[in-house]
Amino acid sequence: MASPHYPDGTVRALLQTDLVTEATRAALLPRLDTSEYTPQFFDEATYELLRAVAARIYPQPERPEPIELAPVVDKRLAQGDSDGWRYDAMPPDREAYRLGLGGINQAAQVLFQRPFGHLSEPQQDQVVAAVANGTAPGENWQHLPIDRFFEELLAELAEAYYSHPLAQEEIGYVGMADVPGWHRIEPNQLEAREPEEVKP
Amino acid sequence: MPDEEVLEEGVLNPAKPEIQDPLLKSILAENGGLLAQAPVEQEQPAPLPDPVDEVDCVVIGTGAGGAPLLARLAMAGLKVVALEAGPRRDPTRDYATDEKAQHFLFWNDERLSAGQNPVAFGNNNSGTGVGGSTLHYTAYTPRAHRDDLRLFTDFGKGVDWPFGVEELEPYYEELEHFLGVSGPTPYPWDPPRRTGYPLAPLPLNGAALLMQKACAGLGIQTSPAANAALSARYYQEGVGWREACTNRGFCQAGCNRGAKASMDVTFLPLAEAHGAEIRADAFVTEIERDAKGRVTAVVYTQYGEQKRQRCRHLFLCAGAVETPRLLLLNELALTSGQVGKNFMAHPGMQVWGTFEEDIRPYKGIPGGLISEDTHRPTDADFVGGYLLQSIGVMPVTFASQMARKRKLWGQPLRDYMRSYNHTAGINILGDCLPHENNFLELADEKDVRGLPKPRVHFTAQENEQRMNAHAEKLMRQIWEAAGARDIWAYERYAHTIGTARMGLSGDDAVVNPEGRAFDVPNLYICDNSVFPSALSVNPALTIMALSLRTADKFLAAQQRLDR
Ligand SMILES: Cc1cc2nc3c(=O)[nH]c(=O)nc-3n(C[C@H](O)[C@H](O)[C@H](O)COP(=O)(O)OP(=O)(O)OC[C@H]3O[C@@H](n4cnc5c(N)ncnc54)[C@H](O)[C@@H]3O)c2cc1C
Ligand code: SF4
């Protein structure tokens, strides 16, 4: 069974209806805003590096305007927010990102003699794969547990991506239509407001 | 019909009796206007009373441990103040059905997680706010079994509780009826009970039905779970009408209907109706004592200002990480050497599978189905036991766990997540034995307040590993029988337990069987930290039962003194 697809526009349309509470709409609508973001924590080069890495972890070739994940990380680090815990083996988050992104660039240099941002997509994928496998070269990995860094990076980007209404639309999640509650909850039972999947 | 819903939303809020429906009004009249005493939700902090005032009791924390006893003490006529680090919110207005927006429900101060199986905190474990972790618990409310409290007697491992489950049973009954627990009567696993659940079970969702069918084929008995979410509208004494669950599946990030029995819609309004004062955004940092070692006051920070509250008795109910942290910070109750020790976390292994069926894991109460056939499995090579639950999940939590475990990235990641609507999970909650390597300590690293961060060491020991292996095999069998493919297991540890345990002697325990610290006569501890063993069931109902018991023992002792 290949991955199902869902019709475009369902979540955007839902958000306009009174099936969604005011609180939920207020949380989701701002995430659809695509205006330019100026980094507050990372310097320009590091921010662009993070963007480039995020674009390989969440490639979105089908989207004219990809969902931007780097602003979520930058804002969090600028505000010093935490999710309540940290691996004791890891340095504080700001330091971890500084070391980890630096390490990715070092790996790119060793493997392809160029910074990550200047590589082709397949080359970038090779660098990310080396980090994922824990085999990436680079001096920074002496100071940062590579597997934990990659795990943290993946988890933070996953949370950022799937918090976005369009990513939720992509996987057919419409739980935000919370006003009426759900009656048809058994397997293969859908409510009128639940989009049917488009079988591939 | 949206308009009807708006009307109904008014009914949900027990703090606003004036806008409730005619039926309610007539019942109110019959009940002598009980509800009319319910407090109005505080939007602004109330003016602070004179700080030199001494109150009978200060309660730190308003979760499962703090809230029930707060109500009990207030109802006995004592002057009580609760100090709660987190905010007070209005669920009908402030709770978005969005995981990210609900971040404020979690204890987000950074904790350091050490050991071979570092425990995730924040959204995995710890809530904050008026209501504590019950604001985001899934409201599973199984009772502990008789033998859960005597692991040492039965297995020669772990420790026994200083009393038997019969001490908790009357409180279980009271709680189930007060909170409005929905569940099966008779309950299939325990010995027969005196009373059944007040409400019928909640409807089963996709994951629950798939698990039910597969288990039937494998000869595993299942039942709809006991859950403190209302399967029907329910009149709660001292609080008023609460609305039925709408199967919104969002319990972990806050119920906006008041259908889930979190403390903010149950014990806390009851406590306030009887004169308790709850101060939100009040973070306690210091506990002051006199020369004899009795607690005299607590110091807390509220809206950037330091304040002091004097008290005759202190109830520390800050949860199994912040409670030992406060004790260590204040060098209090340390003579047993057990503060911070015996940290336990329930093995909470999850097994996920992808199904042909369209499941939509966001619908229905997340944990619909239970089996306790694994309570004492005959083929077990471990001490204690576990229970099985079907689980639903919201997309962000699912994606995050999946990323950590499967390390997928790029196109395979997006493809896998596209089958979100076809995934269903089962998980366990099982006993955990205390071990010397599992403990909490203060780290050198400081938090924003300048206080040392807690560092929690946790390594799953042989018993936990064996239990996980047993459970993983069984859950995989169930999902295979149900027709799942791409089955994967996520090893996780949930619930913070231990760290200030209860026992018969101050040599090896921090509090006595009545919850009082052995070496501080007017300090009581009541939350997850006093559990001597982890139990093979979810903890909240037992924490609440202990809370009521501690309050009753305290009140009885006070009476004895008065005479
Ligand atoms: C996602 C999730 C699902 C869960 N599901 C279930 C379930 O289905 N069934 C079940 O039985 N259990 C469940 N639990 C666990 C259950 O919620 C907790 O075990 C229980 O609420 C713990 O009670 P407690 O009183 O020990 O601590 P808490 O409820 O956490 O209360 C402690 C309170 O103290 C406050 N506090 C801490 N430090 C300070 C300080 N210094 N000053 C002032 N206030 C302070 C905190 O803000 C908090 O409000 C779940 C937990 C989570 C996170
Ligand atoms: S499923 Fe029921 S109890 Fe849970 S959040 Fe929704 S309405 Fe509340």
UniProtKB/TrEMBL annotation, chain A:
A Pfam family: Gluconate_2-dh3
Protein name in the entry: Gluconate 2-dehydrogenase subunit 3 family protein
Native organism: Hymenobacter sublimis
Lineage: Bacteria, Pseudomonadati, Bacteroidota, Cytophagia, Cytophagales
Automatic annotation (TrEMBL), chain B:
InterPro entries, A to Z: FAD/NAD-bd_sf (IPR036188), GMC_OxRdtase_N (IPR000172), GMC_OxRtase_C (IPR007867)
Residue ranges of every copy of the Glucose-methanol-choline oxidoreductase C-terminal domain listed in the record: 434-546
Domain named Glucose-methanol-choline oxidoreductase N-terminal: residues: 126-347
Coiled-coil blocks: none
Keyword line: FAD, Flavoprotein, Oxidoreductase
Keyword Protease on entry: no
Keyword Phosphoprotein set for record: no
A Pfam family matched in the record: GMC_oxred_C
Record-stated family: Belongs to the GMC oxidoreductase family.
Name of protein: GMC family oxidoreductase
